[in-house]
Amino acid sequence: MDRKTAEQRRSLAQTEDLDRLKGQYQCVSDSVLLKWMQAVTGTHREAMAAVLRERGHTV
Asked: What is the rounded CA–CA span in Å between residue 28 and residue 21?
């Protein structure tokens, strides 16, 4: 499943949670986010990846 399809299937609660988490991860450096992404799954990982994509990384 591609990213766009996954985004379309998210519930409103998941979307709000993702936005909240992205806000929390904004102050974390790229190198730390990349390391953390190796250790977590789910919404937290998606939020970290979204922050990194916004910063120009390919994740």
From this structure: 12
